[in-house]
Design goal:
The chain has three helices and eight strands; from the N terminus they run βββββββαααβ. The protein is α+β, with helices and mostly antiparallel strands and about 160 residues long. The protein has a domain of about 80 residues: OB fold (Dihydrolipoamide Acetyltransferase, E2P). The mean pLDDT is about 80. InterPro entries: Snurportin-1.
């Protein structure tokens, strides 16, 4: 049996809006589909990402502004969504941003798909596959229980 962890941090280092900064924990214990699955519910051997083709051949995410993860010289139309597998070279990060992506072309995406993947989804899925964060690591990073009270961390679950 899994559990649901919802953490609210009330003294954040960001401009608060109507709601406080909140983290929803998701791992294989509490979610059946942490790692993206195919239409049969199976986890592919390699991570797959969907990117959009721009007029200059750049392959971008759905973010605003879009994040460029590659370039394609094939004759695909602007706006086409294409699927790639993240190959053995994976994603290489520099200063917290993807510097290089080893992508292998799979093909066009079904027309029912409206958007490319977001940068955060791509990075989250990569990290889940290659260096997952365990709930114990998260708790350890919070420090002792007296430090938790001082920081007013409220956990519901």
């Amino acid at each position: 049996m899994g559990f649901f962890l919802f953490i609210i941090y009330r003294h954040a280092h960001y401009q608060t809006g109507n709601t406080p900064l909140a983290l929803v924990w998701k791992d294989e214990t509490c979610s059946e589909y942490v790692i993206d699955t195919d239409n049969k519910g199976q986890i592919p051997n390699q991570q797959q990402v969907v990117l959009e083709v721009q007029e200059n051949g750049e392959l971008v995410t759905s973010d605003d502004p879009p994040v460029v993860l590659g370039c394609l010289n094939a004759g695909l139309n602007i706006g086409n969504l294409v699927r790639f597998a993240v190959s053995e070279g994976g994603l290489t990060f520099m200063n917290g941003k993807v510097e290089k992506a080893d992508l292998q072309y799979i093909g066009k995406v079904h027309r029912a798909r409206a958007f490319a993947d977001s940068y955060s989804k791509i990075v989250f899925q990569y990290m889940v596959r290659h260096s997952p964060l365990r709930i114990e690591d998260l708790f350890a990073s919070m420090g002792t229980s007296s430090e938790q009270r001082d920081n007013e961390v409220e956990m519901v679950g």
